[in-house]
Each structure stands twice: as C-alpha cells, then as structure tokens.
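Handout, section B. The chain below has 323 residues.
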Amino acid sequence: MKGLIQTDTKTQLQRQREAFERLEDVPSELEWLANIQNKNTRRAYLRDIQQFQQFSGITELDAFREVTRAHVIAFRDYLQRQELAAATIRRKIAAISALFDHLCNTNSVRYNPCSGVKRPTEGANEGKTPALSNIQAKKLLTAPREDTLKGLRDRAILAILLYHGLRREELCKLKIKDVEQRQGIPHFRVYGKRDKIRYLPIHPAALRLVEAYRAMDCRVEQPDDPLFRPVKNNTSKLLLKHLSPDAIYKMVRSYAMKVGLTTDIMNIGAHAMRTTAATNALEHAADITKVQELLGHSNISTTKLYDRRSSKPEDSAVFKIEF
C-alpha cells in the first residue's frame, strides 16, 4: 500500500512538472490577455487586437515583435477613415499599447510602438450619455406598477440606479447578504470593477422600495440568494438566479418608452441613471471626491465626465441674447 501511495505521489509530481513546463511555453501575448480579469475588457481588447492583426497581416504571435510606430499610425488613420467614434479609436490604441507594455515588461520587445502616437480627442469635456431632469427621473421611478411583484422589484431597481449610480453588472451581483448595517445605517456592499468592494449608504427612498419588494416576495431567502431575481422564466423555469445586465438595460428602455422619455432622449439606457445620480449629487453640493467614491471610479477625471451641470440648456448664453 505504501508503495502505491509513493507511486501515485510521484505521478502527481510528474504531472505538475509537465504542466509547469507547458506554462513556460505560453506566449507573452496570451499571458497578457489571460491576466485581464474583467471579462468585458478582455473580450473588447481581444477584438481590438484581432482587428489590428488583420490590418497588419499578422498571422503568428511572434510577428508582434516586428510592429513599429508606423504600423500603429497607419491603423489609427484607417480607423479614422472608417469614421469610428474618437473614444472607440482611443480604446483600440489603448489595447495595443497595453499589450506592448506587457511585452516590454517581459523583455519580449524593446519599446512600445504606441508611444508618441497621437490619439483623437473627444472634442468635449463631458461624456455623451445624457442625464435626466428631476421631472424625467420621477416619471421613470413611478412607471412600474405598485401592485405586482415585478412592478415593486423594478421600482426598487430603478431607485438603486438613480440614487446610487450603480453599474448594471454591480446591481445584478447584489445578494441578500449585501444589504447590511454599518454603524446603524443600512448599506449596500457593492462589488465593482477589478473586484473592488465599496460600501454605499442606502438612500431612504430606495430602502423603502427594496423592503416593499422583499415583503411581497414570499419566496424563501438565503443570504447568498440574488437580491433581484426573475419573477417568471418561460424558458428554463429557473427563478433562483441573478438578473442579467441585458435584462436591466431592456427594463430601463421599456419604462422609458412607456413614459415617453425615448422620444426626447434617443439613447437613454441604464447608464443614463448613473450620469443622473452623479449630476444630481453635484447640483446639491456633494463633493466631487464623494461622487467619485459613489461611482467607484479610480480616477477623478472619469467622474468629471459624468458632470452635466455645465450643459443645462436654461443656463446657456443663447437665452441672454436680446435684439
């Protein structure tokens, strides 16, 4: 028996050594991609790198070592001729630059060919996602019915989006146990990008709606259950699961259409709730660093893109002109 155990241990060690040796052979390019934790970023960067490969005629990973600044400039100019948005072009160049930063760190290449490549500017000091007015926000909040489980759930979701500025993915990840008391105040424990956790005090209006929804939902709750889940599922019949970010987007669009907001705001979606929360907080004298904490931004310059106070039409110089 002892001999069998020793043999089995040797076999496991051999397998581990072989696996380790295989990892040593993994190209740096694939290692860089695998190290990107956010799946959405990883998917977007992979598409961007593949597009650059096709444009440059790269068929083997080793050919990345031969890329020059001229290749990147030509790719940038090609993207501009396609009339892509400036932000999209910057992201694609950023993906290439991130790859070459990694290759430089692993001594696979001598320099980053993206260095010194001018990238298109946005042409504005704010993002393009619109913010809702107070009247529009109230219309949206009261759009779902009050007498159904789905209606109460959707009111609670809209309130969290508008009062707390959560990303769709962050809202979908919320569990029952993520509503907790901190210093006697109910908080959301929010899992943001790069697995960063932030704790947000729950606005009283949002808390009332969450409690009303949970009171009507008679299903047994466990701490690890999703806070928001489907009320019906005609496909798999599975109800004990998180809502998807796509479901949140469609829900917001549906209620926005119901109250006529899509007529005034063509690209309204869940992200507009995030912009609305930031702008409203700043309008009511919130410190921008606190808004940065609310939104979970690493850089305050990103938070500034969500500030729509300067774009209020009633403050425009146009209305100061008289003839």
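Note. Residues 58 and 64 are 7 Å apart (CA to CA). Compare this with the example in section A.
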